[in-house]
Amino acid sequence: MENSPKSVKIYSITLFLLSFVLLFFMGRAGLKLPWIEIAAFGFLVWIAEFFGIDLPKVGAISVSFAVIFAAILLFDPLAVILISLFAAIVRLDIKNKTSPFRWILNASIAIFDAGLAALFYKFAGGVSLITKSGLGSSDFPAILIPLFLSAAVYLIINSALGSIAIGLYLNTSPFRAWLANAKRAIPGYLILAPLGLVIAQLYVTNGISAIALVVVPLLIARESFKAYMKLRSAYGDTVRALIASIEAKNSYTKGHSERVADYVELAARKMKFPENEMDLIKYGALLHDLGKIGIPRSILCKPSQLTADEYEEIKKHSDIGAILLKDIELLKNVLPVVESHHEYYNGMGYGGGIRGESIPLLARVVSVADAFDAMTSMRAYRDAMTSAEAAAELLSCAGSRFDREVVKKFVEMLEEEGKLEPDSVGKRMEIICVEEKEENQKFEPSGKEDPWEKEFKKNKSKPKNGLGIEAGFEVKDDLLIIDDWDLE
After folding, report:
1. Which of 45, 151, 184, 212 has the least C-beta neighbours within 10 A?
2. Which pLDDT band, with edges at 50, 70 and 90, does 272 fall under?
3. Which of 370, 369, 430, 442 is nearest to 399 (CA)?
4. Please, is 272 exposed, middle or buried when counting C-beta atoms within 10 Å of its C-beta (0-12, 13-18, 19+)?
5. How far apart are CA 101 and CA 225, in angstroms?
């Protein structure tokens, strides 16, 4: 049986006590409850939850909202709550034998979202469709306000309370959890609310037997959700298949793109990239080396020094990757990353020859993560660096090859994730911070020679990377081939 974190237990108990208070005060009205209807609608809710569709992070989505929304339009708030409680019996909880605290949590959320939505519908002027014998043309547009308000309250309460729970389970920001899952659910709620109205109308005109007619549209709605989630999953699988085809050419870099994507995702969260862009960010990082599929294996896997001509071939992979992606509509948004992840902040990189903040921010992040993973990975021609050594190399190239701010955030992320001992590169970080204050990082055109170009020309006569290839920064002599960091 699952062992829930202490924070989840506290949250579950607190929410349960609050929901019990709400339920108690509603029950004091002494209403005569329609138990047959509660059982029938509750059974539909349970069926909908049982066939829910798993979300990418935690939890699932179902079409039960349509049935609950119909109940809001038909019955008193207390009856709506009792119907909604059937949603607490979740398939995943039965399958995984989850902690009782999760059951308590699900029940508490069901009480709050359905109960408050029903109360808002009533207070906004909405009346039971049973009393009105269904809606007529004269009820519009006035009825739209209570309809919209109750649906919005349900969505807000349900997603807010659920996201807090997910945040506690995953030890992440509840807001990030909301953006990761609720944003996919919102279109579904927009479809299910009108379906709920149809269910309520059918019940009023044909009685409880009409509920059987609801099964077909509910199944259609479920299959639409399922197809949508499958499409998203297939999208990710396609990206990973492309990556596998690249890494199959070189066993030494197997897993490189996945690790870079993980680093980039963590760094992007540290830099507060919008959560709704995280899928794009991950795909861009995964596909950054896609163009290497067009580079001969003899060059990628050469166990000795590359010639200048071979290095020029390697440099083509950015353009090759862009060509491969340009006609794929779903992946066009990652083109800037593929094209620009080898641009240097001082303009000495390759791709389009851009510099500074003209380089897309995500490409600057991928560049840092790409170099860090290359340096900390074992190769046949060299040992892996420690994380501290690799971080020190990043910091030494901050402001020249890399964006200073990106490097700072990346190193801070490594410390927070436990991949780097705190203060292991503290002294160098302090120097970087001082340099950042003293120097304007933006490269404005001027008549004077750029100091980095001057350094580049100085190093031209004595290359430091052992390849006979010009380099504008120091690369350790034993870093010879294959990885982008080693090459440049």
Report:
1. 212
2. confident
3. 442
4. exposed
5. 28
Write out the two tokens for 168.
Answer: 């506690």
- Predicted confidence (pLDDT) at residue 447 exceeds the cutoff of 70: no
Cβ neighbors of 466 (< 8 A, separation 6 or more) are 305, 477, 479, 480
Answer yes or no: is pLDDT of 281 > 70.
yes
Q: What is the CA radius of gyration of the chain?
A: 29
CA–chain centroid gap for 79, Å, is 37
For residue 182, CA distances in Å to 55, 117, 277, 330 come to 9, 18, 14, 21
CB-based contacts of 151, cutoff 8 Å, min separation 6: 69, 117, 189, 193
Measured CA to CA, the distance from residue 433 to residue 476 in angstroms comes to: 24
- pLDDT at residue number 455: 38
Assess contact for 81 and 114: CB atoms under 8 A: yes
Average pLDDT (154-183) is 78
Q: How many residues does the chain have?
A: 488
Q: Please, what sign has the CA dihedral across residues 57, 94, 229, 61?
A: negative
Q: What percent of the chain has pLDDT over 70?
A: 69
**Interior/surface letters 20-43, b for 16+ CB within 10 angstroms, e for the rest:** eebbeebeeeeeeebeebbebbbe
**% residues pLDDT > 90 (the chain):** 20
Instruction: Grade residue 141 by pLDDT with cuts at 50, 70 and 90.
Output: confident
CA-based diameter of the chain, in Å?
Answer: 93
Q: Which amino acid is at 437?
A: K
Closest alpha carbon to 442 in 416, 403, 474, 485: 403
Question: b or e along 120-138 (b: 16 or more beta carbons within 10 Å of the residue's beta carbon)?
Answer: bbbeeebeebeeeeebeee
Contact status, residue 81 vs residue 110, Cβ threshold 8 Å: yes
Give the tens place of pLDDT for each residue, 38-69: 998 998 888 877 776 655 554 556 678 888 99
Cα–Cα dist 80/71, whole Å: 6
What pLDDT is attached to residue 458? Answer: 41
Instruction: Please tell me whether the overall predicted TM-score, pTM, comes out greater than 0.70 for this model.
Output: no
Model confidence at 457: pLDDT above 70: no
